[in-house]
Predict the structure.
Amino acid sequence: MTDNQTESPEKAAAGNTVISDFGIDTTSRTTREAFGDYFAKVRGGEFGALPAIGGLIVLLIVFSSLSGFFLTINNLANLITQGAGETIIAIGIVFVLLLGEIDLSAGTASGVCAAVLALHLNSNGNLLGAMGGTVYYAFIIVLALAAVLSVLMRIWAGAALALVAVILLLSGFGPNAWLEMLLAVCVGGGIGVLTGVMVSKVRIPSFVVTLALFLAWNGVTIQLVGSAGTVPIRNSPTLFNVANGNLSVLGSWILLIVAGGGYAAVLLFRHFSRLRKGLVAQPTTMVLIKVTVVLVLAIVATWLLTLNRSPNAIAVIKGVPYVVPVILVLMIVGTYVLDRTRYGRHIYAVGGNREAARRAGVDVDKIRMSVFVICSSLAAVGAIVYSSKIGSVSGGAGAGNELLFAVGAAVIGGTSLFGGRGRVRDAVIGGAVLATVNNGLGLLGFQAATVNIVTGVVLLVAATVDAVSRRRASAR
């Protein structure tokens, strides 16, 4: 077509249609349109964390009306620390669930990590004497094998964790809380490598592998600690304070400024950056409301936690619990990895359609192996927190409700059991729901049986919502 020729009306209309189709990517929305899009997604089955948030609000209202102690500052602080260990394990579970896999061994794997930490502390660093020669050298061989397998699979983080674990085991360093926590995390990373290899390379279904390892790691923990014994860790102030200590009042407000200010800065920067580039963005009013609500809630929570909440007139307990910045850091890093990195996009791609991801050039086996490394490493962090809370490690560590609550927290928060859909924040929101159920029912005098029944019902409801939303979304 020459410059002086004119297009036919049909071609012009087609061109306008194409422009309007692509124009959707470069057009801002009004507040009304944004709300309309959100409710359309909800009607289409994309509930996200909405059911969990709604359920949490209902639980808070119910328990506060039934127990005058529930909304006291002391109880709210206890609520945060009680579910912190399971919440951290749940963050790792999210990565596995995003692939449509499951890790039933995360709980007992965390027990092994906690047992190694506690034995090292109480044996003055002599793990060879505490474990016995056979178990000690078996640990070293297994972790060395995990390091080699990680190198072959190019899982460099797994290789580094397993290798550091071997070095720490062989070094015979004296009691040191920080090095013992590092050892626990590194042992967890090595365990994750072994799990990931059997799932990704040997092709054994993750349910079968992790069920077998659930039993195996439970046996290892019993071997290390003893079937009826416990190993104390409260004799280490550093380890005991992980879940029982608090930031200073000044440190609490600094945490608020750093975390709250960082959240507001990042959200506003992304928003105005999208506006400058002409990309679709939420209305500025909505973004400002979201930032304001989060900051107000954070300020109120920080102010309450900096008040003296000790039930004893002699003692003074003030400040944000240490576990809060721990969970915040893990949530921020995990969210960044999933939302802003190529690795995170590959996780969602494999979870959404494994074969399509493979054909697009994604190393599916590497992705599948890596999420188990993440899960077991975070399980070790969770073990440090829940062991700190009770002040000891028992032979049944991790074999109780820790795993069930962790998986339940991820699913209740909105992570799909079918893969491809979920966020790190889901684990935190779901963990808050389960901690509220456990705490509230305990205050009302209900025993473990009732707590387990209610928790199971809540998890079943969450799984039902997940299945229904998945079916509605696929029907669109």
